[in-house]
Amino acid sequence: MIQAIGLTSNPRKELPPAVDDVSFEARAGRVTALLGAVPAETAEVLRLMLQLEPGRGVTYFRGRPLNRIAHPSREVGILLGDVPGHPARTVRGQLRMLCAATGVPVTRADEVLEVVGLVSLRDERLGTLSRGMDRRLGLACALLADPHTLVLNAPAEALSAREAAWLHAMLRAHAQQGGTVLFTTSDPKEAARTADRVITLEQGCVVADQDAADFARTRLRPRVAIRSPHAARLLALLTKEARVARRSVEVVREDGNRLSVYGSTTADVGETAYKHGVLLHQLADEVGDSGPPPPPQEPSATAASHPGT
């Protein structure tokens, strides 16, 4: 279990602290997501927890601060970014070096290579690894001393969907074995989909601490996802119909031929498309953007265009 109490970074010049009085718990047997739109803020929370950054507050790992733990790597496995190491060093060589540094048997290197699926790449140089393989190696480094707790900074960032799914399955397996898992993300949908609990950070402060189901219900907006070769025409039709019916519907043009519709249903959108002969390649309910639902407005329809989420 992790207990973070009053974490506050030292202010720089006249600016307020980037992290201000952050307190939360991450329980054993559960995956906890620390969500923040500014990755630097969530990363700084982790550095404060791990005493890598000067500041105030304390973090207990199963009742002890990190500097009171005789062998920290056996209690907390850490992944804060790309694996640091000489690009010419091999994958196995990197792990064996860490075995010597942490006092674990050198045979543990081959064991964790098996766990993370890197046995076939054990003789590859660090400088040749893809993003996904580097993340696997980073997780192997974190698991090397068989820690109870995993603390990971944006572990799924820039991974393919397949690699991200693999990583989240590994974190889930660690929690199911009784371990504690804390990871950061800037993607609210990732947090809702993969964590048991979501702690939301805004402007350096905790603004919500919720079960994932409550987070998805209260802080994510449901939407109808549409893909159509006639997206522009359908956008105009949906906007016009909502305006005539005086319903508050937001139609957003996403990348390519995709639309997101907030405040409507798949049945209503499908009926409009069918009535006007608009071909649909996708029509589905999804979870949309982070944040509470927009405040009530005068009955109207609005159309906007911005990059997809």
From TrEMBL:
User: Matching InterPro entries, A to Z?
Assistant: ABC_transporter-like_ATP-bd, P-loop_NTPase
Polar residues: compositionally biased ranges: 299-309
Q: Give every ABC transporter domain span.
A: 2-228
Q: Please tell me whether the keyword Transport is annotated for this protein.
A: yes
Claim: Transport is one of the keywords in the record: yes
Segments for region (Disordered): 285-309
Among the Pfam families in the record, one is ABC_tran
GO terms for MF: ATP binding; ATP hydrolysis activity
Q: Which residues belong to the signal peptide in this entry?
A: none
Record key words, sorted: ATP-binding, Nucleotide-binding, Transport
Q: Into which family does the record put it?
A: Belongs to the ABC transporter superfamily.
Protein name per UniProt: ATP-binding cassette domain-containing protein
* Organism listed in the record: Streptomyces mesophilus
